[in-house]
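Example record

One chain of 148 residues, shown exactly as stored in the release files.
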Amino acid sequence: MKKKILIAGLVLLLLAGVGVGVYAAGSQGSQSDPLITKSYLDKVVLPELEQTLQNALAELPEDPNAGVFRTVILQEGQSIQCPVGTEVLLYFGSATAQIKLSDVTAGATVYDGEVLERNHLYLSRDPGAGVLAAGEVYLLVSGEYTLG
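Predicted structure tokens for this chain:
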């Protein structure tokens, strides 16, 4: 007897759960009453989003050298120090890393004193990281740097 009551209670609970699920699924928007309309997106959301994007772009500092590579020539013993984010490409000569650089071309890290590969792009990821020339060196540098 108790078993029949328990089974009947579970069946009623299951039917109630299914009923709530069907009601919730059916009341989440329809053709006549959608959750959000296309006209609301077009007239309210998109203009606000475009204005927010324009304001964010206007606040960005303008760097005339952003993305521009400059040729830097170092003599033996000279070095450059780079803040985080500066890109360096060694295209002539022999040089070693100072502190730590990311070798973007090889997907590796070059530690202090290790030799740089020619035609590899390096990214400064630590303040003061840089390149020390072992002879005459030609670099392409994008971003800020100081000669040392």
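Notes: The chain has two domains: 2-59, 70-147.
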